[in-house]
Design a protein that fits this description.
2 domains; globular; 199 residues; Trimer_LpxA-like_sf; transferase; transferase activity; mainly beta; 7-stranded parallel beta sheet
Length: 199
């Protein structure tokens, strides 16, 4: 499938876009971005230099994905969400001179396969969002989020577990959980949630 770039989008010729990827109006995709097949970058979104995205990612309108972020397959980044890259932001150095790229070291956010970042959420680098986790809309993530965790609030705190369908898992009371949508079973071992393979 062909890559679709809407009129008014700014895509560097040095970016690598996978088959079937769509870049919408006013989006900017910087140099050395590597994007897998079937991705969607919404209106006004920003993908920073060297960001790596897996297949079938969706970055919604006006989301900001700053380098060196790494997104797995099937990651959802909601409208106006921000993945930061500067742990000590300043416009100037202590002597008042304007900072440039040599004056700081970018650190990125890493997001595992299938995870979702809600609208206007902020992930403060360096953090890792585990596979299939959900960050609620408006949350501010300052610590790593385990796979399948549901986190909310400012700062974000875990309030439950979610399955691959994105729905909150039902606690069966014996260390196992069930997805109310798919019926898939999950098992909690310590702080690690995993899907139970069925025969």
């Amino acid at each position: 499938m062909a890559v679709r770039v809407a009129p008014g989008a700014d895509v560097s010729p040095e970016a690598q876009l996978g088959d079937g990827t769509a870049i919408w109006h006013l989006a900017q995709v910087r140099e050395d971005v590597r994007m897998g097949a079937g991705c969607v970058v919404g209106r006004g979104a920003y993908i920073g230099t060297g960001v790596v995205m897996g297949q079938h990612c969706k970055v919604q309108n006006y989301a900001l994905v700053y380098e060196p972020a790494r997104l797995g397959d099937g990651v959802f980044v909601g409208p106006a969400a921000v993945l930061t890259n500067d742990t000590h932001p300043r416009a100037v150095n202590p002597d008042g001179s304007l900072k440039d790229a040599s004056d700081w070291h970018a650190v990125g956010v890493t997001i595992g396969d299938g995870a979702a970042i809600g609208a206007r959420a902020v992930c403060v680098a360096p953090v890792t969002i585990g596979a299939w986790a959900t960050v609620a809309a408006g949350a501010v993530v300052t610590r790593d989020v385990p796979a399948h965790a549901l986190v909310v609030g400012v700062p974000a705190r875990q309030v439950g577990w979610v399955g691959k369908a994105g729905q909150r898992l039902d606690d069966q009371g014996d260390g196992t959980f069930r997805c109310p949508v798919t019926g898939a079973r999950y098992e909690l071992t310590g702080t690690t949630m995993t899907e139970v393979e069925t025969a």
